[in-house]
Amino acid sequence: MAATKLQAFWNHPAGPKTIHFWAPTFKWGISIANIADFAKPPEKISYPQQVAVACTGLIWSRYSLVITPRNLNLFSVNVAMAGTGLYQLSRKIRQDYFSDEKDAAPQLEA
Amino acid sequence: MATALKSFLNSPVGPKTTHFWGPVANWGFVIAGLVDMNKPPEMISGNMTAAMCVYSVLFMRFAWMVQPRNYLLLACHASNESVQLYQLSRWARAQGYLEKKESEAQQ
């Protein structure tokens, strides 16, 4: 039974023999790269790039549910992109606009 | 001119459809890459840039094979591939990966 299901998946028109499978599957690489970059200091984060990642993720999340057929693989990968992009943006914004005041205060006191 | 515009607006991959706005969003990567060309290479993320290079190659093929064929998506990813490969080369050079031939010549 498992063998026929596997065969059905393998031979599917959007299955692993086709680009319709690998392109959205590989898109996970962008979110994985972003998660790896969570460990990097916020100075190295690029605003334009992370804005692009977050916006692409949000727009494609919506549209992957609206196209025919609905593509839940594409939906989940774009939700992840939006999430990681927004998190990276929050790290950089927090450092640029909120931690400077904390750093500046001790200097003034000293 | 007006008829060309009308046929574009009403086309199956035109601005009234998702097949248009998804690719438009992806141009954000190209613009971000172009803006980042002026930044010091230390700011480039090797992880993200390498992932983008593979991603854009796959989506160029996807744009060609999908029904209907999506030339806007193809153009977007072709451009992104160029920009990201250039950024990757800047990153690799800054990391010291591209200096081998020079050091061998000196020795």
TrEMBL record, chain A:
Keyword Transcription carried by entry: no
**Localization in the cell:** Mitochondrion inner membrane
Coiled-coil segments: none
Regarding protein family, the annotation reads:
Belongs to the mitochondrial pyruvate carrier (MPC) (TC 2.A.105) family.
Q: What does this protein do?
A: Mediates the uptake of pyruvate into mitochondria.
Q: Does the keyword Signal apply?
A: no
Keyword set, alphabetical order: Membrane, Mitochondrion, Mitochondrion inner membrane, Transmembrane, Transmembrane helix, Transport
Q: Which organism is it from?
A: Miscanthus lutarioriparius
- Pfam (any one): MPC
In which broad location class does this protein mainly occur, judging by the first location in its UniProt entry? Answer: mitochondrion
Gene Ontology BP, a term: pyruvate import into mitochondria
Q: Which GO terms describe its cellular component?
A: mitochondrial inner membrane
Which protein is depicted?
Mitochondrial pyruvate carrier
In the bilayer, the protein is annotated as: Multi-pass membrane protein
Automatic annotation (TrEMBL), chain B:
Q: Cellular component per GO?
A: mitochondrial inner membrane
One Gene Ontology term from the biological process aspect of the record: pyruvate import into mitochondria
Q: Which UniProt keywords apply?
A: Membrane, Mitochondrion, Mitochondrion inner membrane, Transmembrane, Transmembrane helix, Transport
Q: What is its main location?
A: mitochondrion
Membrane association type:
Multi-pass membrane protein
Q: Where is the signal peptide?
A: none
Which Pfam families does the protein's record reference?
Answer: MPC
The record ties this protein, via InterPro entries, to: MPC
Where is this gene product found?
A: Mitochondrion inner membrane
The UniProt transmembrane annotation reads 44-64
Coiled-coil ranges (or none): none
Instruction: Sum up the protein's function in the record's words.
Output: Mediates the uptake of pyruvate into mitochondria.
Q: Which family does it belong to?
A: Belongs to the mitochondrial pyruvate carrier (MPC) (TC 2.A.105) family.
Q: What is the protein's given name?
A: Mitochondrial pyruvate carrier
Source organism of the structure: Miscanthus lutarioriparius
